[in-house]
């Protein structure tokens, strides 16, 4: 190879090396920016649970006037998830960590919090959804028991919990407080039963999200049975904790029938 050809080869090789180095530097810079840039997600984890048949901060969760109230045993535990603040900065590293931690998950911010609102506005939305859920739960329970809302008043009090996902458990709690299993016995059969699901006044149960983390919270706090909207069976089965029996429901009647089967040792629905 002539000297001129060698110089040309070295020149092209040198330019290629410089180009590759520049590209690598740009890619590294982009990756660094991506790793440090905040993402539109929140990190969620198992939250608190509460027995709707019990008390919250010394006040009964469910108070009924205008109808006899029975003493209950067992538990009906609503479950929640806790999430990072909607204004918190979540980065790639946080999502990476949550990916490998079964006790955490990354979810789109808009799936957890209403978009475009301040913290105060979000809290108002959550409280309004909770109030609407309690109204629907009361209506569904009284309808199931054949009681008139003009004569029977139900008050539901639970601090630090928002959103509509406790509807099913509130409904079951009201029924257990007033009517039990319909024959004077506990609706729960003395078990610690947890669950999640919205409910409307006609008794239809709706999906809520975050089920795997809610199952962890339920099992952590002693539940052995978990009621889940049937539409979320796939998520519920994916990370079902050991010792927690999963029962899918689509309506209030489904839930009552399943609990009856559980008390009498009959087969219950499965996902």
TrEMBL record:
Task: List the InterPro entries.
Answer: Lon_proteolytic, Ribosomal_Su5_D2-typ_SF, Ribsml_uS5_D2-typ_fold_subgr
Q: Where in the numbering of this chain does the Lon proteolytic domain appear?
A: 163-257
Q: Does the keyword Oxidoreductase apply?
A: no
- GO biological process annotation, one example: proteolysis
Q: Which UniProt keywords apply?
A: Hydrolase, Protease
User: In this record, what's one Pfam family?
Assistant: Lon_C
Q: Which GO terms describe its molecular function?
A: peptidase activity
Q: Its domain of life?
A: Bacteria
E.C. code: 3.4.21.-
Q: Which Gene3D superfamilies match?
A: 3.30.230.10
Where does the signal peptide begin and end?
A: none
The protein, known as: S16 family serine protease
Please tell me the species this chain comes from: Actinacidiphila polyblastidii
Record lineage: Bacteria, Bacillati, Actinomycetota, Actinomycetes, Kitasatosporales
